[in-house]
Amino acid sequence: MSTLEEHVDVDVSIDQAWEGIHQVESYPRFMEGVRDARREAPGRAQLDVEAGGQTRQFEAEVADRGERLMHWHTTAPDLTGSFSLQPLARNRTRVQARIEYDPDTIRETFGGPKGFAQANAIERLVRSDLEQFKEYVEQGR
Fold it and tell me: Cis peptide before 28, with omega less than 30 degrees from 0?
């Protein structure tokens, strides 16, 4: 398994950032490749993701764990991750994304490069998504 951790500092309160992370229906606005996202039931979300020229549906289990920590997991492909929020000041929050993935599974599911090039592509995607999230929450959704 590989682990990726990235973070972004946003100029909103921790409560505003927390609310933004929980707005599943807004994921297409800041997550590249997500075409549709909806909450199916408490703790479950359905994501339509376009990758490699194909759209695939993923079901995610989502749970709040502890203070300002949201954990998520998909089973096909097997991905696990979390978003954690840390207050930096009254209206400044650090949003940290952590993703655990098997590089071979990612390549089989989404296509793309192998090895170091794949890790770089995933890092760029997560960084870009976090920057898009920053714009999303700072503009007041």
Answer: no
